[in-house]
Amino acid sequence: NILMAHNPGIALDLEWVERSVVDLPAVNRRAATLLTRRTVKKSWQAAWLLRAVTCIDLTTLSGDDTSSNVERLCFKAKNPIRQDLLDAMGMGDYDLTVGAVCVYSARVKEALDALKRAGGNNIPVASVATGFPAGQVPFETRLKEISMAVKLGATEIDIVISRELALTGKWKQVYDEVKACKAACGEGVHLKTILGTGDLGTLTNVYKASLVSMMAGSDFIKTSTGKEGVNATLPVGLTMVRAIREYYHKTGFKVGFKPAGGIRTAKDSCAWLALMKEELGDEWLRSDLFRIGASSLLTDIERQIYHFVTSRYAAAHQLPMA
Ligand SMILES: *[C@@H]1O[C@H](CO)[C@@H](O)[C@H](O)[C@H]1NC(C)=O
């Protein structure tokens, strides 16, 4: 088990927040290069896809979640790629699993039990809390939901900031809320803070919200709930990882990054890995500092790996799940 990122946070530095500006055209140009670069060589591509698998927060967050959904998700978390395909790639003995499973707080215990049955006790369970996805519940209720999820055994908590506070520049209040959530998590539980970037208006605001969330002690910052009108985009990702880089240079604390929302294809996952590698370096390519929140991405990755191994595309019944 890799040790997760841990960020104790710092005092709110409003002067730093206020002077931050993002150059939108420059960010867009840079993001475009990540998409148009020559594709990674074939054998490397397969290695990158396996790497992406280990960084997936395999997620089920629908109103109609059932225990059989959760059971299936947890089995897949432990067995993300068919064993014969892994064997063919010489990866059969690696105990390849996803980074975590991510469920609603009411499903944490079920997920832990299902992981145990699947032999995946080492896989962390992350819970969304704080009135996901809108964050529109009283603050006390949000803190209680965190405590409950932690009590049930979640070791990672994904919270949503109050977009309204961020949009109107009430950074002290954003800071205080995130800091209170971190305290509610307690020792050894990792806080992932969702900015809801689709609702934040400008990239400068995304940068500021990233800084404030990190100052308040977020161990990860995450783009989206998947329920905003706009999902994780590369320009937003670039903006956030550059905030992570600046925060690391100033404080020495490494904060992780989690793009989420609308990431469905193997090709997308490679673009995100390239972004991490080029902006933050190899260390940020591991599941302790990088996660991709996704539900159907794994299906496409497994399809691509099937193709890599067999040179054929799989029929639907050959790769069950999704
Ligand atoms: C965002 O992502 C979610 C989850 O993948 C998806 O259901 C939704 O349709 C996406 N929304 C947009 C606007 O692309």
Detailed description of the structure:
This protein has about 325 residues and is an alpha/beta fold. The protein has one domain (about 15-320): TIM Barrel (Alpha-Beta Barrel). It is built from 13 helices and 8 strands. It has an 8-stranded parallel β-sheet with strand order 7-6-5-4-3-2-1-8. Strand 3 (about 125-130), helix 7 and strand 4 form a beta-alpha-beta unit. Helix 4 (about 65-80) packs across helix 6. The radius of gyration is 19 Å and the shape is globular. About 50% of the residues are buried. InterPro entries: Aldolase_TIM, DeoC, DeoC/FbaB/LacD_aldolase. Its EC number is 4.1.2.4. Interacts with YBX1.
Query: Main sheet?
Result: 8 strands, parallel
- Total domain modules: 1
The shape is: globular
Bound molecules: 2-acetamido-2-deoxy-beta-D-glucopyranose
Q: Gyration radius, to the nearest Å?
A: 19 Å
Strand content: 5-15%
Mean residue pLDDT: 91
Kindly provide the name of the CATH class.
Alpha Beta
As for the CATH topology, it is TIM Barrel
N-to-C SSE string, H for helix and E for strand: HHHEHHEHEHEHHEHEHEHEH
